[in-house]
Amino acid sequence: MADVTILHNPACSTSRHALESAAAAGVHVEEVRYLKEPLDRAALLDLLGRLEDEPAALVRKDSFFKDQGLDPAAYATPEQVADLLVEHPRLMERPVLDRGDRAIIGRPKSRADAFLREG
User: Fold this and answer.
1) Would you say the C-alpha torsion 51, 55, 59, 60 has a positive or negative sign?
2) Contact, 41 vs 86, CB < 8 A?
3) Are 104 and 111 in contact (CB under 8 A)?
4) Which residues are marked as active site?
């Protein structure tokens, strides 16, 4: 069984850093490529319930977000965030590191490193 699940996007350098840091620390990882295997609403709500960050932090407010005409204020609750990420998985902030009892967004990189060392 994995020590940590990392919701990962291989195109993201911060996400790749989390995997590299886990390997260096000897942490057994389950890698979930959330763009290929999107989380359903129930899984997102479960994750948001364990996330140490505010629900809104799980949403990337990038150019795609702006191009869709989305309003950041409309995505503050776990339910709103889950509904958005079911529709647009690419808007999920990454990486997300999940121990099962708690989860964090691994930004900045030092935050992922500290989480992995807690093991």
Assistant:
1) negative
2) yes
3) yes
4) 12
Identify the CA nearest to 67 among candidates 85, 88, 83: 88
Q: Model's pTM, two decimal places?
A: 0.94
Q: Token pair for residue 99?
A: 């121990």
Distance CA 81, CA 55 (A): 7
**Is the CB of residue 47 less than 8 Å from the CB of residue 81?**
no
Residues 37, 92: Cα–Cα separation, whole Å: 13
Per-residue confidence in pLDDT tens, the chain, 119 aa:
679 999 999 999 999 999 999 999 999 999 999 999 999 999 999 999 999 999 999 999 999 999 999 999 999 999 999 999 999 999 999 999 999 999 999 999 999 999 998 86
SS3 119: coil
Contact 48, 78 (CB under 8 A): yes
Label residue 82 exposed, middle or buried (CB < 10 Å: 0-12, 13-18, 19+).
buried
